[in-house]
Design goal:
alpha/beta; four-stranded parallel beta sheet; 12 helices; Rossmann fold; 14% strand; Glyco_trans_4-like_N; 352 residues; Glycosyltransferase; transferase; glycosyltransferase activity; glycosyltransferase; six-stranded parallel beta sheet
Length: 352
């Protein structure tokens, strides 16, 4: 999002960017639109009521006042879940304003009653009407109510308020575009625009990572995620560790919590999140294969980053993952057994 903002400014476009969390306001053109208290309250209330997107009225009112003053020709939405904006207020405003709307979806939340992904639990309720959500306790967590049916119908109404011809949906993968075409957003045109990575940063880069971790003569398997969960395939990395001869190979996992690092099996090197893209580039470049056993994903940029650094990728055939694999040495597989076979084939090294 910030890259697009910078590109527009370079072209002389009067561009504004607003976000909800983590970063403070920079200028009148680059601002956080949500208060910490508002985000906190939205999160707490959502955990009780399962109504993500229906709080933050005060913060959203302030944002809409800014938008009224700006009078934009185009409003480009990205993720609007995350406890920072009121979707009813923003879509009613968009419906009544003259602006064109582009909406880049990064997951499936826009057309479900609760979850951002549903493939892991093999749920298809979103095709007709969500109810009795099997993922109520998953993000965005609800500890009490299940409002998935109400959310589904409210979102169906709100997200169809913008007249046809004034809104375009953008997805990073054809996989997600196909799902949109089966959802209650199907009346809107969908454009697939694949994510990219900065090739001036992500490129083969020599470093001392192997030497620092005594990996010079080993076949190194890398995994990167944050946070690491079963959905991201952490359990498959633990299963993989039982197959390996650690005198010949190693597993490196980046993005783990300190708690997760403490319980790793011997032979698995665990690292927390890197401090910079350059540090991550050094790790990508030092490893023999990047394994992405994710069970739910849209268009994972980690696959793109690894390939850009010259490291072949082995990824599960999940969501938009197959669309990210472009290098000749990379593989798309169905499960861990397929991943093991693929890694053996990549360069002929025996590692298990």
């Amino acid at each position: 999002m910030r890259n697009l903002h910078e590109e527009l400014k370079e072209q002389g476009v009067d561009s504004y960017i607003f976000w909800g969390r983590r970063h403070e306001t920079i200028s009148d053109h680059e601002a956080c639109c949500a208060s910490k208290l508002g985000v906190y309250a939205h999160g707490i209330l959502s955990r009780l009521t399962d109504r993500v997107g229906f709080y933050s009225k005060r913060d959203t009112r302030r944002l809409l006042e800014r938008l009224e003053a700006i009078d934009p020709d185009v409003v480009h939405l990205h993720n609007i879940h995350g406890y920072y904006i009121n979707i009813e207020m923003i879509f009613e405003w968009l419906a009544n304003h003259r602006c064109q709307v582009k909406w880049t979806l990064h997951d499936c939340w826009a057309f479900t009653g609760h979850c951002p992904y549903f493939t892991y639990v093999n749920c298809d309720r979103w095709l007709a009407s969500c109810h009795d959500c099997p993922q109520k306790r998953e993000y965005p967590k609800s500890f009490l109510a299940d409002a998935s049916e109400r959310n589904f119908h409210d979102k169906k109404h709100l997200f169809n308020l913008v007249p046809l011809g004034r809104m375009e949906i953008v997805t990073p993968s054809q996989w997600l575009a196909d799902l949109v075409g089966r959802s209650f957003l199907s009346k809107y045109p969908v454009t697939v625009k694949h994510n990219t990575v900065d090739r001036s940063v992500f490129k083969p880069t020599p470093g001392d990572f192997r030497k620092r971790y005594s990996l010079e003569d080993k076949f190194v398997i890398l995994g990167v995620a944050s946070p690491w969960t079963e959905r991201k395939g952490l359990d498959d990395f633990m299963r993989l560790a039982h197959y390996l001869d650690f005198s010949k190979c190693a597993i490196v996992l980046v993005g783990l919590s300190l708690k997760q690092i403490k319980v790793l099996p011997q032979g698995v090197i665990g690292l927390t999140r890197t401090d910079s893209p350059q540090e991550l580039v050094g790790i990508y470049s030092a490893t023999d294969v990047f394994l992405n056993p994710t069970r739910e994903d849209n268009y994972p940029t980690v696959n793109l980053e690894a390939e850009a650094c010259g490291t072949p990728v082995v990824t599960y055939s999940t969501g938009g993952c197959p669309e990210t694999v472009r290098c000749e040495g990379s593989r798309v597989v169905d499960d861990l057994n397929g991943a093991i076979r693929a890694m053996k084939e990549i360069n002929g090294k025996v590692f298990a």
